[in-house]
Specification:
single chain, mainly alpha, ABC transporter involved in vitamin B12 uptake, BtuC, 14 helices, about 80% helix
Length: about 350
């Protein structure tokens, strides 16, 4: 009886702690959102923001900056950060690989190839670039899974297939650039990643896909916990490992591909944020997914804010800021990772 009461006490404390973490991250995200709308090449005070949004005067310079630049850019950072973070959580869980990320299954390379193809043969078609990047991510994942399935669909086969497909698609991308050098500038901006010039129209389809995929991942988070135990354990508990893993790979591709379609190839979010989130709330994906979404949004928005204000009025791509922060973390992760362990 005493052991039962102690377990119940620990459970309640843990639940209270998780709620506190989620509440804190939500407040922090709201705070950073206001900072993102306020700061940039032109600083706008909070009273001026509320006044402009209330009056909705299209002739006002402040209103145009807020409505057509700051709000779409802030929303883009929130959506991209959450999508890439959730994609990283899914991949690391279902592949049992602490170094897994959206690029491990060819999402980045597939999206990049299709973006370059659109830029080369349909220049100026922003809408088609979004669709192309999204389809490229999905098709590359399907190709990786098809190859891996022929060898048993194990997590190692998927990882190796992802590396091979990414290399092959990268060669195709370089070939297109060699034959169509005018596409280089578009590809360069796409590879670095950023939110400059993002519009609500560009994000409409991608945002819908991100919300739906996030909802499905939450609904299926318990199965993700089972799959993270390992293939043999999951099978012994009655889980169809091949089918569930395929479903999660598609969800990860939808999330990452949607974000890449309007934000470019932002790096390290899908790797860094899941690890930091696990340090905060542990390995239960039912809690880890929303925490990663909040933390990823906040981190991405903060990096974008730094990119705008460090050298204001000049701006540097947010992908550069993320590389400066993510590179050392990735090296640290490699140094502390112990062979044979799941996440350490």
């Amino acid at each position: 009886m005493e052991a039962h009461n102690k377990s119940l006490y620990i459970y309640k404390n843990r639940k209270s702690y998780n709620v506190t973490v989620i509440a804190f991250l939500t407040i922090l995200l709201v705070f950073v959102i206001f900072l993102s709308i306020s700061f940039g090449s032109t600083k706008i005070s909070l009273p001026a923001i509320f006044s402009a949004l209330k009056e909705r005067d299209t002739a006002s310079k402040i209103y145009r900056i807020i409505n057509y630049v700051r709000i779409p850019r802030t929303l883009a950072a929130v959506l991209a950060g959450s999508a890439l973070s959730i994609s990283g959580v899914i991949l690391q869980s279902v592949l049992n690989n602490s170094l897994a990320g959206p690029s491990i299954i060819g999402v980045n390379s597939g999206a990049g190839l299709f973006a370059v193809l659109i830029a080369a043969f349909l220049p100026g078609s922003i809408y088609y670039t979004t669709i192309g990047a999204f389809l490229g991510a999905i098709l590359s994942v399907l190709l990786v899974y098809f190859i891996a399935r022929k060898t048993g669909a194990s997590r190692m086969a998927i990882v190796l297939s992802g590396v091979a497909v990414s290399s092959f698609i990268g060669a195709m991308t370089d070939t297109v650039i060699t034959l169509k050098p005018d596409a280089v500038m578009d590809r360069t901006a796409f590879i670095i990643g950023g939110f400059s010039g993002v519009t609500l129209d560009q994000m409409s389809l991608a945002g819908f896909c991100i919300i739906v995929a996030f909802a499905l991942s939450l609904i299926l988070s318990y199965d993700m916990n089972i799959l993270a135990l390992g293939d043999e354990s999951a099978k012994s508990l009655g889980l169809n490992v091949g089918r569930i893993r395929f479903l999660y790979l598609i969800l990860a591709a939808v999330l990452a591909g949607s974000a890449i379609s309007f934000a470019g190839l932002l790096g390290f979010i899908g790797l860094i944020v899941p690890h930091v989130s696990r340090l905060l709330v542990g390995y239960d994906n039912r809690i880890l997914l929303p925490v990663s979404a909040l933390l990823g949004s906040t981190f991405t928005l903060f990096c974008d804010l730094l990119a705008r204000v460090i050298f204001a009025p000049y701006e540097i791509p947010v992908g550069i800021i993320m590389s400066f922060l993510g590179g050392p973390f990735f090296i640290w992760l490699l140094l502390r990772r112990k062979r044979g362990q799941l996440y350490d």
